[in-house]
């Protein structure tokens, strides 16, 4: 533990000492002196040029950071999404549908149990409708998660189970997404500080809307913590 | 007394040629430090974790920032070590005086700083290629826009100026230390002590310095500032070296 804490300092010291030994003329260390140093530089430069050519020839498209512009579009989408959800406009929400569940149900009371989710809670909306009898329908909607303007293809769904009169909702399996991002060096970024050019700026969109929309028959009593869900009345 | 009139520019040119051939150890150290920087950068220059409903996003960021940083440090240390007696006395193999010796060293430093800056920026491709080919596990690759030719040229020019500016700082520090060996200990203590004292009084010199240089987003102002700082440091080094001559 102590060694780990001091490792960066040791490494830095080793680098400094190594450099002094290599550059200092009076040191007895003679590695890379004479023409060897020059050849080493020539060889290294050739290697760098080759790697630059190979990298630029790779079929990877350069993409400018979409940044704020994309963020604005996603904010609008997210607002439209929540407007549709709160007004119960199911037709408008169709394009964001991820998964549907249907449970036969002929009891008079439904207990809604929401599993603990420490960071990102699932937004639950409940609608009482005349259109359903002896059935409960749950649909999970989510606007696409955008990373640097790209839509993430992997879709997340919460876990929804019906047991007797209890509908249990758990966060489900979290999708672990790992990405590499190749950026430009700080001297290039210095004179280009407009919005969206710094990589930390909104690469992962803050505006992805999600909702678990539960439709239950009219007159069914729903028991749950009021803070866990929102009642929707399309009329 | 010789009747041959020797031109200063001619001597400086010859000394640069000599230094280019003799001080090849600086190239070895440049390659070594950049390879080390490359190795450290493979772990990513930065990481960002982000949580959304149902998603855990981890983005590892790759740039040659560490390599550029190491190169800046190399520029500082190389200039510092070029002021040592062993290097300075080499110049006396030629017809020389303090002025030509300093001018040729500064010119040589500028040349190696250009090489250092260019290789540091080129190593960015090697790093990205290695990260692309070797490092497994990531599903998608995002590439931040490289910008146009103008941005590229500005970036290259800025890197050269930064490395050269830090070499001037190293050269000045080296010259001051040549006045008296005790200054190897005294100078860092005084500089760091002063910085601490001033920061307690609410004046953080290092922060102002970095803000003054690195937070400048106008290319022409940045150029002006770095050239001014570099000139001041080299001018001070020349003044100190003149004093060194009297002492010898």
From TrEMBL, chain A:
Keywords: Membrane, Transmembrane, Transmembrane helix
Superkingdom, taxonomy of origin: Bacteria
Membrane-spanning segments: 6-24, 36-58
Protein name: Uncharacterized protein
């Amino acid at each position: 533990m102590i060694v780990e804490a001091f490792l960066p300092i040791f490494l830095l010291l080793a680098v400094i000492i190594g450099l002094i030994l290599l550059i200092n003329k009076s040191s007895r260390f003679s590695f890379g002196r004479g023409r060897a140093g020059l050849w080493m530089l020539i060889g290294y430069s050739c290697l760098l040029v080759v790697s630059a050519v190979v990298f630029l020839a790779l079929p990877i498209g350069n993409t400018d950071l979409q940044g704020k512009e994309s963020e604005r579009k996603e904010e609008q989408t997210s607002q439209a999404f929540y407007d549709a959800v709160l007004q119960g406009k199911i037709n408008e929400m169709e394009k964001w549908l991820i998964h549907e569940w249907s449970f036969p149900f002929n009891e008079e009371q439904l207990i809604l149990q929401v599993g603990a989710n420490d960071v990102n809670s699932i937004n639950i909306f409940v609608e009482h409708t005349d259109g359903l009898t002896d059935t409960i329908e749950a649909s999970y909607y989510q606007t696409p998660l955008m990373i640097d303007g790209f839509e993430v293809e992997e879709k997340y769904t919460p876990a929804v189970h019906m047991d007797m009169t209890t509908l249990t909702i758990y966060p489900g399996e979290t999708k672990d997404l790992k990405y590499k991002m190749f950026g430009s060096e700080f001297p290039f970024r210095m004179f280009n500080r407009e919005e969206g050019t710094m990589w930390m700026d909104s690469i992962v969109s803050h505006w992805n809307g999600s909702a678990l929309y539960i439709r239950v028959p009219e007159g069914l009593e729903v028991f749950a913590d009021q803070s866990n869900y929102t009642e929707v009345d399309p009329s | 007394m010789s009747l041959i009139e020797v031109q200063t520019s001619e001597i400086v040119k010859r000394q640069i040629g000599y230094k280019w051939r003799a001080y090849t150890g600086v190239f070895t150290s440049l390659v070594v430090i950049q390879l080390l920087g490359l190795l450290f950068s493979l772990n990513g220059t930065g990481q960002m974790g982000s949580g959304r409903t149902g998603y855990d996003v981890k983005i590892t960021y790759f740039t040659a920032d560490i390599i550029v940083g190491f190169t800046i440090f190399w520029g500082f240390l190389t200039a510092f070590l070029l002021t040592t007696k062993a290097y300075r006395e080499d110049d006396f193999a030629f017809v020389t005086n303090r002025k030509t010796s300093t001018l040729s060293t500064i010119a040589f430093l500028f040349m190696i700083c250009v090489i250092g800056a260019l290789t540091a920026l080129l190593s960015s491709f090697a790093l990205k290629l290695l990260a692309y080919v070797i490092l497994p596990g990531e599903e998608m690759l995002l590439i931040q826009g490289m910008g146009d030719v103008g941005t590229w040229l500005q970036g290259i020019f800025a890197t050269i100026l930064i490395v050269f500016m830090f070499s001037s700082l190293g050269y000045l520090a080296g010259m001051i230390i040549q006045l008296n060996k005790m200054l190897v200990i005294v100078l860092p203590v005084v500089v760091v002590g002063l910085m601490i004292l001033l920061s307690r009084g609410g004046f953080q010199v290092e922060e102002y310095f970095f803000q003054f240089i690195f937070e400048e987003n106008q290319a022409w102002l940045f150029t002006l500032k770095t050239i001014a700082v570099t000139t001041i440091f080299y001018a001070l080094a020349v003044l100190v070296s003149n004093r060194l001559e009297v002492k010898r």
